[in-house]
Amino acid sequence: MARTKKRKNNTAAHPTPSVATTSRLAGITANLTDPKKTKRYLSIGKIVVPLIAPLAIEGIARARGVLDQRRAAELGVPVERVGAYRGPTGRTLARIDAVSAAVEELRSSRTGDAAVKTFSQTCHDQLHNLAIATHAAAPMPASRRRATLDAIGRELDQLQSQLMHHLVAH
Question: Could you say which of 52, 86, 120 is where a domain stops?
Fold first, then answer.
């Protein structure tokens, strides 16, 4: 046997609009749909929009430039490369590229050192694998992506520590 509850007539949950509100809305609607006023607003718009549009576009471009400069400083890359490091994995990819560049610089500065050569080759392979893992993390759900990027970050911390050891060793 199914039980049914009686619903209370709760008028507080659905208040009816007052007469003042209804008349105010009617006045606004009548004002906006008045043909003479509409024609006047369109005429003003034809004059004002061409004057304001270039200023708005310039303002947006400047704001975008400032945001790109801030992001470039945050990532430690040139402004021209900011677009390559967008999305949720961009920060990690920028870090991988920075470590890779530092390893290449170490390799080129110490060409005769066998330990540096071995380290740089091992590090290059690890960085390549970390870059692949970072690209694979991009389409993951947010929680898994965060965990993956945290693990990649720990690996990068270890590589940077080893790199600092090789840089300071000589």
Answer: 86
